[in-house]
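Quick question, first post here. What does this chain look like in 3D?
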Amino acid sequence: MRFPTVGEIATTKVVTVTRESILSEVIDVMCHHGHRNIIVEDRNSFFLLGINDVLSAKMRVPNLDISIASLELAKIPTVYKNENILSTIEYLNCNLEHICALNEDGTLYGILTHTDITSSIDPDTLMNSFCLDDFLKLGKRVKWIRKETKTSVILQEMINNATDSVMIVEESKPIGIFTTKDVVKIIRKNLDVEAPISTYMSSPVDTLGKESSVKEALDFLAQKHYKRVVVVNDDGSLSGMITQKELISLAYSRWAMLTKEYQEELGKINESLIKKNAQIEHLASRDPLTNLYNRYKFSKLFELSHKAMVEREGVMSLVMVDVDFFKKINDTYGHGVGDMVLVGISELFLSLLREEDIVCRWGGEEFVILLPSANLKDALSLAEKLRGRIEMMEMQSVHRVTASFGVTQVRVDDDLKSAVDRADNALYGAKDAGRNCVVQN
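> Answer (accepted):
Ran it through. Tokens below.
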């Protein structure tokens, strides 16, 4: 599930005029394209010329031969086309039903309307089980009018109340609807506004039953290209009206709620996978007996440390450690005691080494220690300290254990094998020298 970007759903075929255009000519453009509103460009700003603006101007200047610049028009909010559609939701609470989508350079890319948003909503995320009757707000957005009412009265009410539609009702049943689209025709053709509203209303009225679902209402709007749904009771009497804005709010609230639920569920799954991956990573990189790094992990860490040493022109040393006469310990006291010795030495290493030092069980009774930023002198000093502490350790059954050490400084042209080979040669030198000592190479 994803929310589209503004550019993905915006209408790009937009008719615009400039602030210098003459109003009478703009009305011709509106009629030619069948628009009840038109976009007015003024440098980097955009304004909306609506039918109410035309009505107000006609009361002052009957022939409408005036510049649009003389009108006070509503400024249209703007968003960039690559923004998420959720960034436009805050604008749906205002009376203006248009949002300008801009290119990165601030030029007009397209227009976003309630229709565009409605048609982009995924029906699978909507509440098919929720009925329109659950969301009706009776009498708040629709004016009920008798068919004998003069059109001029209705036009004045539309101006005063900034409404875009009225419902013509007879015996509680909708018999016609009068919208701003009908107003455009009256103005363009200069029709008689003293005629009854029934002369110009659209009839019959397409309606939906109050038990219809939100999905059915959205499909209805998309098919009919309407801005509102007229809702009736079972007997056909007017129950109310739901606008696109209300349906959008409802649909997006549900969509956002579902997304949050999915995110929470995915978050729990992700958290579980992270823990599982951490466990797998631990098992894949650690020696199961000593919990030290294994050869595979050590080789990766050596590569990273060596790269950092070269880039910083630093130093690094490597130490090989072998427990003396370990086979004899196993043969004499058993493998359980031998394991205890390895674990004890491993814990000693971890307690004495720095946080940045890397220690690995190389295999059997052998260990490798990587000492970032340590030169050969420092490495020899540390190795001697470790040797002495191992010799002083009190072990159950074995009592006294010793170890031999081979030390080398890592070179710029080294790989892991060449560095380990030098340290290993030094280690053999320590064994030849009688064990329980430190030798460098």
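The chain has a mean pLDDT of 85.
The domain at 6-120 is CATH 3.10.580.10 (CBS-domain).
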